[in-house]
Each structure stands twice: as C-alpha cells, then as structure tokens.
Fold each of these.
Amino acid sequence: MKRRQGWLFFIIFLLSLSIYLLISYPLQLGLDLKGGSQLTLQIIKEEGKVSKDELEAVNAVIDRRVNNLGVSESNLQTLGGDQLILELPGEQNPLVASRVLGKTALLEFRTQKAGTSKDLKSLQIQRFKIKELIEQYSSFEKIKYDDNLLINIQNDLQETEQELNYSPTSNDLYGKLIEIKKYIDNEITNLFIKTDLSGRDLINAGRRQEQTRSSWEVLLTFSNSGGDKFAEITKSIAGTDQLLAIILDGESISEAGVGSQFANTGITGGSATISGNFTAENARELEVQLKGGSLPLPIEIVETNTIGALLGSKNILKSLYAAISGLIFVGIFMIFNYRILGLVSVLSLVLYGFFNLALYSLIPVTLTLPGISGLILSIGMAVDANILIFERIREELFDGNTLTRSIDSGFQRANSSIVDGHITTLLSCFVLFLLGTNFVKGFAATLGIGVLISLFTSLNCSKTILRFFTTYQSLRQKNLYLPKNSLSN
Amino acid sequence: MKYNLELIKNKRKIIGFSTVLILLSLLGILYSTFNTSYKKPINLGMDFVGGNELRIERVCEEECSDLSPDSVLENLREISENKNVLNNIKLQLQNNNKLISIRTSYLSIGESNNLITNLEDIVGPLNYESKNSRLIGPKLGKRLLINCVTSLLVSLVAISLYITIRFDKKYALFALLALFHDLFIVFGIFSWLGIILSVEVNSLFAVSLLTIAGYSVNDTVVIFDRIRENLKSKKESHNETIQLSVNESFRRTTFTSITTLIPLLSIILFGSYSLFWFSLSLSLGILVGSYSSILLAPSLLLKD
C-alpha cells in the first residue's frame, strides 16, 4: 500500500511538472498551424554524392543570404544529405527569398576579346530590342486587344531571329522571347575572356541610388588582393576599345570601358560600381547575394509550401475539436462498458494527454497537422492497453475472485502481451522517422512517443488510480466494475 | 456475455469472402494500370508526381457571386503571359463559390504568384490569409515516391522478422498473410476511389499503410497468443480450442478497434481537410485488420 501511495505522489508531481512545462515553454507549432512558408532547396550535383563539407558550405552561404535579407524568425536546417529546408513564418512573401536563394550568384569579371567591338555593339542593340519586346508583350497581355501590337511584336521577333540567324525551339511567343534573350546573353558573354578576379575577392557589397537617375547601383568592395587584381585588369584595357564586363551567373549585367587616364596604374582604391539600371529591389537582392558569396553548388527550389495565418488558426481549432470529441467519445464508450474501470482509463487518458504535450515542449517536437493526427490516433491505442487489462480483470471477477486479487492479477497477466503488441507499431514509427520526410516525421514522432507514454500511463497510472479508488469502501462493490447484464450471464 | 462465432462451420465462407475482396482489389489495380489516363496501379497525387496546388478564399460580402470554372479559366488564358502555365490546369469552386482550388503542373513561385494576381483580376479580391499553396518539383516527387516505397518495404521486412522470431513458422506465415491481405485491400479500395472519384494518394497514404501494418499485426499477435496459451492447457480438440480462443478475445479486439476508430472518425468529421483521406484509409485499414485478425487468420490455422 505504501508503495502505491508513493506512485500517487509521483504521478501528481509529474502532472504538475507537465503543466508547469506547458506554461513556461509553449508548444512549437509547425507552419500548417501558424501560417508561413517553407522552401525545400535541393543541392544539384551532376556526379557523385554531395559531401558533408559541400552541404555545410551551401548551408553557410544560404544562411548568410537569409540573414542579410532580414527575414525575422526564419529557420534553416539540413534534410538528408543534400537538401535544406527554410521556414519563413508569418506573411513573408517567399518570392523574394526564392529569387535571392535560388541563384548561384557566381560573379565574374571578364575583359573583351580584341577586335570584337562591332559584334558586341550589334548584340547589345539586339538585347535592348528583345528586352523592349518582352516588356511590350507583358503589357499587351495585361491590357489586351490591341492586335496591332501583337503583330508588331511578332514581326520584330522574326526580324531579330533573322539577324541573329537563330531560331528558337519554343512554340509560344513568350517562350521564344525568353529563349532569344538567353541566346543573346550567352553570345555576349562569349565575347569576353575570364580573368582571375571573381566574387571571392569581394569583402563587401552595398547599394545606393544613382545621383542623376532614379535607378540604383550596386557597390563592390574588394579585398586587398582583389583590389590589386582589379587595378591590373583595368590597366590592361585602359584606353583601348576593349570593355570590362561584370557577369553574374553567365549573364553580363554591365559592360563598361576604362578611360586612358588609368593606363598607368589601373583603377585603384579597391572598389567598383555596377550600374545596370537596377530597381531598388533588384539592387538589394544582388547586394544580399554578393554579401553571402556564391554557392559552391547550384541549388534548385523543389518544394514550396505556403499557408495563410488564418488557415493555420482554423487548422488548430479543427484539430482541437477532433481531439476533444475523440477523447469524449472514447471516454463515454469506456465508462459505458467498464464503469469505474472506464473512469480510471479516462483519468489516465487525461494524464496521458498532459504528459505527451509536456514532452513535446521538452524535446521539442514541432506540432504539425500529421503530428496531431498521430497524437489523436494514439489516444485510441493508449486505451488498447487498458482494455486488455480490464478484460483480464473481468475474467478474474467472473471466476469469483475478490476485487483486489482480480485487479492485481489482471495487471500482471496483461503486462507481457501489452508490451509485445506495441512493438510492431513502434517498429513502423521507427522506420517512418528514419526514412520519412519532415511532414511524415511529425506523425511518426507523436505516434511513437504516444505509444511509449501509454505504456506508462495505462500500466502504472491506471493501477495507481484504481488502487486509490478502492481504498474507499463505497467504491468496492463488484457491480461498479461490471455492468449488471454481464454479471447475470 | 459470451460470444459464439462459428469459425469452424464458416471457414469456407470466410476464406471465400477474403478471396473475393482480394480479387476485387486486384481488378481495381489492373483497371487503374491499363485503363486510366494516369496508367498507374493507383492515382498518384502531387506529392509523388509534382505540381502546384492552390487553395484560396474569396473576400465576399455575405454571399459570393456565381462563377463558372470554365469562364474563369478562359479569362485566365487571356491575361496570362506564359500560356504554358495553364496547360494542365484544373479549377474547382467549393463552399458556395467561396473557395477556389486550382491544380496545375509545376510552377515557380513567381509564376504561381502571377497566377494568383491574374485570378484576383478576374474573380475579385482574395483573402491571402486563407491561402494554401503547395509547389512540388517533379524531381522531389520521384524521390518522395522512392522514399515511401522503401519505408514500406523496410518496415514490412522488420515486422516479418519480428513475427518469425516470435512465433513458429506456421503462425508467422498466417499472420503475415493476414497483414498483406489488409494492405492489399486498402490499396485496392484506393485504386477504385482513384478510378471513380479521382481520389489521389499522397505521402500520408503511405504513412497510413505503415500504421495499418503495425496495428494489424498487433491485433493478430494478441489472438495468436491466446490460441497458443489455450492449446497448451485446454483439453478440447485443436479446432475447437482455436474457435474458443477467438471468442475469448473477441471483445478485446473489437473494443480496441472501436476506441481507435472513434478518434479517427472525429478527425474525419471535424479535422482539417488535408487529413480526411488519411483518416479514412486508416479507418478502413483498422476495419479490415480487425476482420482479418478475428476471422481470417485463425480460420487459416484450422485443420481440415
């Protein structure tokens, strides 16, 4: 008897500890419950596996970019060997993040091949034209029904195709325009020769509005050696008709000449400006990318999940309804069939709920919709053990044993088959947790934790509560444990 | 209350019933593989093939105006820059025209945002707080599919190993037979649902299959334990002892199934829509699982 009382105090202690934990460490909610966006970034490597170092390097670059973007409370973690998951809570638009993160941001400085001035000029004109056409096409689609404009665009496009001697493979107009622009960009880049100056030589980047125009420019600050390289390169082309191109991910974003006054020393001072008609937003994105450095391996955004805040809170409410109604109906079923024993199992279920949630905030487990369904499902499984025990107790009572004896042997005899029976469920959870995606892991974690805790609550807690009940004489009548009709049978 | 299931008398009926269920499932799977547009044993959802799913509510005063999906799509085609985006588009209106749900092939975030802006131009203001958008690249989808299939296989092997160690050969064989019977039938039901109602399966379906596997074996283990225990002590014949054991554990097995089904039903009734099919497949699995644990697996143990 003494030992049982010890258990009772222990359980009360655990319950208060759980409530304390839940109050001081609120549960972490997943995005499907609080709203927000989640991006899955896949590292692309043509051959072989992504090594640990490479994963860390990519992670570091992405982390710097996210920080520089100024997204609050974002969370970046690696998944498997070659994926990263970025969570942006709240109403933050994933579009900017996806544009900034998705680019490799490989910055190169190239000098023009000698004697290609004419080719470059004509390509630059074509590039200007195609940009115009793309803009026109966008506005045409918005306002609609100026058929002349569409015909003009088509004619101009055809002209450009002939001049370039290149025919795009795409079928629709928009695809053709984009393809030709890519082709021109590529041709321009090919007119320039690589130098050993690159984004690695930067120590900082910034942006400012141009003085005379409304557009923005991006400022680059080189390291010492980078500054020397920059001076060397500018010196080599100063006063010639060769231009210096700044190329980002294979696309030239600026081509500029170097004046003859720099012929002796090159441009010194360790800084440069890119003024390529940036909007405020473009300039900021480039700044963030350059500050974060270029990615050692390209990445692709393979999954985006966005959930509005309102939908999130609705999901919480719905899950709460489902959990509570599940609990109530299971409770009614148990009390109807097992009387006092049913009440005991309801009480241990409530304890079970508290212990579970407390453990979630302690570990911590991020609660998601699948996670909640795992928790709700485990309510049913937690009762499973109770039913096994109660059935045994019933049998003992039928055989004419005393209440105390029946309870004792009921718990004892059911013990092994309960532990045994839960092993297969735990096996499944374990596999799910190892192999599953983030989404699935939530379910596996809550179901697995639930099954483990249910072993404690349904064996120990139920027994203790039952023992406590039976200390009262009025609660020791057999018919309180067996429905009348079953006794008469 | 004593239960009296006449297992011995009905052995043929039980095995016949299961055979019919299995054949129906097989028929669904075959029909789905050869006679549907997707040519797969089951209608794979976005998680596995990639794509874009968007659900968003309109802002309406009192009631939302009538819309026809076709005219919305037509307007969308007219104002979209990139027509490719709309190649495989499907649009549905739910909740009295309030909720718009759209499925397309995979889009970038930018393209998806454009789609929403264009949609807003056509149907009026949208409530961004209610937005739910999922974009899954085809590469990731394939990976998820491989992942799910491996998880299923690994845990089936693990469960089989556990059962073989725990029971002797005959018991293990029948327990596993019952398990595959359950999984196959749930799979078959969802093949049919895919054919008839275009229900798609996502990674949560794979999770439900795994959970069913664990649960169904658990049930069978309890009954087989009882049979083994009784075979050692009782004087009745082999077949009668089995029938007796099943009747003894009948209450326990049905009760635990009921207490597991109750929470699942509350998720189906009150829970979030994204858990609807998941809870349904779990419920079906538990129903079939209880049937096979109580009736099928013990019947297989009966001697002729």
Amino acid sequence: MSSSVLRADAVHKSFNGTEVLKGIDLDVAEGEVVCLIGASGSGKSTLLRCLNLLEQVDDGDIWLGDAEITDPRIDVDAIRRRIGIVFQAYNLFPHKTVLDNIVLAPVKAGGRSRAEAASTALELLARIGLEDRAGAYPDALSGGQQQRVALVRAIAMRPEVLLLDEITSALDPMLVGEVLDVIRDLRTEGMTIVMATHEMAFAREVADRIVFMADGRIEESGPPDQLFTAPQSARTAEFLARHRS
Amino acid sequence: MTPSERQLERERYRRRRTLTRGAVAAVSTIVVIGLLVYVVGSSPGWERVHKTYFWWPDAKAAFPEVARSFWLNIRLFLVVEVLVLIVGVLVAIVRVIPAPALAPVKLLAVVYADVFRGTPTLLIVLLVGFGLPALNLTGMPTSLFWLGVIALTLSYGAYVAEVIRAGILSIHPTQWASGRALGMSYGQTMRHVVLPQALRRVAPPLLNDFVSLQKDTALLSTIGLVESLRAAQVISGKDFIFTPYVVAAAFFIAATIPLARFTDYLTVRSLRRENGLVT
C-alpha cells in the first residue's frame, strides 16, 4: 500500500451540543481519490473543514504525512498551504480579477514572485480554457467558470491534497460537466483528492474509494463497484436506491 | 436588421414621453424657484437681510481674509482625515480580531469608541485644547494646530472606527474562510481580502463623516485658532454685518463638493468593474 497522505483518527466534532462527527477514521493514500457521499447533514462538509483545520476538532487526531496537525503548536497557515479546499459557493474574491484571485496566496503566503505566480496562473487558466478571462472580475463569469477558477486558485498553491466540498452543487446542470472535467484531469495527474459530492455517477467513475457517511459516522466504505452494486449495509443500500430514482 | 413598424412606434412613444416628463419637471422647478425668490424678495425685511447677509461689496472685502484663513481649515482637515483613517482602521481591527489574549487592548478600544463617540466634539476640543497643555508634559505639543488635530482625530477616529468595523463585519465569513484556506494568515486575509472590500462598502458613510469633519474644523476657533469662521467673526464684529459668515459658509460648501464627486466616482467605478462591465 502506498504511503498515507492524510489521516483522521477518531475525529469528533460538535456544534452547540449537537455531535456532527462521532468518531471518524479515514486514511487517504497518495494519489487516491476518495468520494464522500451521504445525505445533507451527515457530516461530509464538517469532516472536510476539520481536515483543513477550518474547524477545530473536539477530539481525535488528524495527520498530514507524518505531522499531527491537530497539535495546537503547529503553524496552521503552513498546513493549509499544503491542503487545498474548494467550496460549494466558489468564494472568489470579488474585488480582484481572475488572475489576482489565483496569484494572491502564492505571492503573499507562498513566498513566490509575482511573475512566477502569474505565469503558473496563466498556464493553469489556459488548461481550463479561461486564459482570455484573466483580467475579468468574478461577477462577469458564469458559475461554472467561477468554480473552475476557484479550483485553479487552490491548485496554484501546489497542495499535497485537494478537498472539494460539493463543488458542483450550486451549479446549473449544464455547467456541472465542465467542472467535473477539471477534476478528471487532476486525477490523471495523480492529485490526491477527497471530495464530498452528490454526483453519484461521477463518484463511481472517478473514485478509488467511496465513503458513505450517515449521522456523523462512516457507515460503509469500499471500492465504487462493490459499494454501488453490493452495499453491505442496509442503510447504504437505501441511500443509493433513493439516489437512483 | 431594420426594426419593425411596431418597434418604431414604441420608440416614438418613449421619446415623446421622455420629452413631456422633462418639460413638466423643468416648468415646475422654475415655478418653485420663482415663487421662493418672489416670497423672500418681497418680504418686508428683505432689504435689511440683503444688506446684512448678502451684500456684495462686503463679501468682496471679506473674501481675501476668509480665503487666507480657510487654508488653515484645509490643512487641518487634510491632516486629520489621514490620521482618522489610520486610527479608525486600527481600532476597528483590534475590535474584530478574535484573539482572547488581546482582551485588554480590545477593552481599551471599546472604551475609546464609547467615550469619544458619546462626547460632543466641542467638549473634546475644549478639553484637549485647554487641558492637555495644562498637564505640562514634556513632548506634548503646545501648538494650537496640533492640539486641534488631536482633538478632532480623537473624536472622529471613534466614529470612523465604528463605520469601518461595521464594514469588516459585513463581509461574508466565506471570504475569510477562502483566504485562510489558501494558507494566508489572519493579517494577510484582513489586509488583502476583507479590508479592501469593507472600505469600498463603507466609502459613502465614511465620506459623510469626512464632510462633517471638514465643517467641524470651525469648532477649533473656540481654542483660538484663527480659521475661516473666526476670521469671518472678526470682520463681522467690526461692522455688525453677517456677509463674511456667508462667505465662510461658501468656502465650506465648496470644500465638500470635490469629496462628494470623488466618492461617487469611486463607487461607480467599483460597481462597474465588479458587475462585469470592465472599462
């Protein structure tokens, strides 16, 4: 088995007394694509936010490589530079152009020169077919374009893992495809990805492993073919049946 | 493509309607102004009011002195505006920063904002203008100019801090999240992501405070600064005429107009950019 990039051990998280994560164990190997599926409120987003340290865990450990990143002495910003995350609502910076959105963090936090960061950014934009929009402001782009820019913005930091939080859920069905194409490309390049998604067909196609979450626990996990055709748990079967109809 | 007959008819109607509405607006404006002029001009006291407040020879005579002293107002408000922005941003950031260790500084910022926003500016001017020099502290400025600057900065810094704080809090938390998620520190996210958006959003109320500040430089006449209001007072005291005051008022009005147009320009520019109409 290849080396572990990101690992959660017995992670617990509550909000206002409601336990959202009830002991999550997850081990993501290098180059692996893991899809988190499950109903809204099952804890997928919270798990991703905990993995990126945007939320503080109440108990349990998270490891990035061989560093325990739940240690309060750790440099949180340095860790986040190694873990990219993209959100459902794109969250581009509206006062900056597409290019400046992508270049900001590599220059300010990554210590790269503006020229170098800009040439990387333009290269990445060219790959998603948006190089001619480098000078545009986010509001001038469609949702799909904005989400692709958000993906590029995260990748520009050259993270070791990419977390994707239902990044197609806010998009028009017509625009979902172009975002999924970018994810396919990233997978081909060997990017390690953990993504929460409701796109079952896509998850089945692209994932090395599917993790089904329910009520803050991992109900079942396994390779897509096995999980989708022969789920072990009744709960998984029920969820999948509802999603097929 | 040539427009259809129906479309041409619509356009004719719209042109006609715009013309009619414009004509109605123009006529009614002229009538109202004419009435005002007539009522005021035909009032029994107009002759005296005209001579006391709006007498051209008096205005011409007062102009050089008022203009010269208005230069002091301009210097005052330019210096204070810069300082107020700095104080405002600093106090606002201290108040929103989520660091428990900073509690004492945050408390100080809250007390500052509450006290100086609650005290009439005139009182602050008097307290600073006469109180600070009385302390006999070494290094404390004794020049009236700097005492005035300190007083107005203390007062307006508190207002502006609250406006900027409101602006910072109005930026959606997801903007913070994406800045931090990219590995930028709290300070970097504040500096490059949140603060620029916040300042843009609060530019109109900020301008409002600056206009008010420009007028309040006149309060510094009470501690002996001969700015334009004081100069006008001196002239009018000699001859019992009020026209110099009106001249001073004209200067204050003239000074606020560029500020207003500048903010309009900034607002329109950022709206246009961020709504996709790149210019």
